[in-house]
Predict the structure.
Amino acid sequence: MAKKSDYFGLGYIVSVILAIIPITSWICGIITRFSEGKIVAGIIRIFFGFNIIWICDLVLMIISKHILRLLPV
């Protein structure tokens, strides 16, 4: 069975494909952070998710199968 990844518990390949596309990465990152109850992290992703956070999410998704956790609290 495929190992679960960070975007909504989807498989690793599907999550990487979603992370490659900037718009879907931005939207999935926002929804993921809000669903975890991290309101501030979700708001930060709304304003800064299209730049360096997208690249970090892409690299971390490929390497560690998780998106960037800017605010771990």
DSSP finds four helices and no strands in the chain.
